[in-house]
Amino acid sequence: MKPLSQRTEIFTDSVIRRMTRIANACGAINLSQGFPDFEPPEALTRRLAEIAPVGPHQYAITFGAQNFREALSDKQFHFSGMRYDPQKEIVITCGSTEAMMASMMSVCNPGDKVVLFSPFYENYSADTILCGATPVYVPLSPVDLSFDADVLESAMAQPGVKALVLCNPANPSGKVFTHEELSIIASLAVKYDLYVITDEVYEHIVFAPHRHTYIATLPGMFERTIECSSLSKTYSITGWRLGYVLAAEPIMERIKKVHDFLTVGAAAPLMEAAVTALRFDDSYYAGLQAHYTHMKNLFTNGLRDLGLNFTEPQGAYFVLVDISEFGYGSRSSMSDSHNGMCDASRSDAKCAGGTLPDEQFCIDMAQNVGVAAVPGSSFFREPVDHLVRLHFAKKDETLYEALNRLERLKKLKR
Ligand SMILES: Cc1ncc(COP(=O)(O)O)c(C=O)c1O
Q: Which of 264, 280, 296 is the last residue of a domain?
């Protein structure tokens, strides 16, 4: 047989989804892959039930149903003050996952470079590589998640850089970029004429006093921002696979074509039902905020009581817990980063069949403590192996049970 594609040869499976399989196999509470175990809003599921017998059940228009795009345009105007034209500046995709991929494919040529902050959501480097582009990483400080503007500028100024990916609020760090930080990013994007591809799936999960700012609203940014987001997190419907891209018409024309060939379109009956959610009033978003603040407080207070060190989330629903005290060692002698891929140039221990310290910790924790987490190394470019990511989008009883089980963590100490 002829060899399969070189571009995808370096991929390993997704570490996050692998941890979900391990959690299922050993009956662990799955705090690895981020999805809620509570129900979506009742109005939404009721509407879905109404639609089931009557449809629509056939393809929607490829760019997304007209009423969905109109409702989304109104919602976006309400929250950001920006009015996107439902005909020309919006496309509905299969989750933010497709939105990011279609955006990246519309922007990048093979050989281009894309700037990513590290730690980052593992799909971004995969998206970049699928486009034949190369990621350029800018570290966030492990202490306060700040970035060095000079390091960012030298990354953005590199020849061949076409775009920067901005996840805000960020997975896995829980960082919410401040207005000042976004202004720095925006001015550099203008200076070096780069696109900014955003992933704002956690736009409505932000903890006071932090506030979400859409970078597209900053001066000079509307025409170069490709805003990706989805309904997955905002309405607790990760399985519906509804996402979207908002961008100025000249960019959107291209993204629409890529989207059409990639997936044809998002699910018609689900779009029809979800119009209901897009038309929810402010009380829904206040309730969502209050619910997530409650879950965050419950979980982080429990972690604090257990004596664990972790990052305090500003937004999204993750904590990075420091596992240094458990004595699993360091991978500096073993390998470099492996964010879902093997780097042939750096003889990655993972790809050679090795297991990184934080991976081993997560496997032991799932099997012996009964709680599944994601090894932090899957999110960092730098050789970071002392963190694991847990998420708290769960019912109170699930979080209490997880905290109970985590009391057994001391058994893992080496
Ligand atoms: C930052 C980020 N972007 C995108 C996604 C996936 O979004 P969607 O379900 O809209 O594809 C996730 C899911 O965890 C995420 O954390």
A: 280
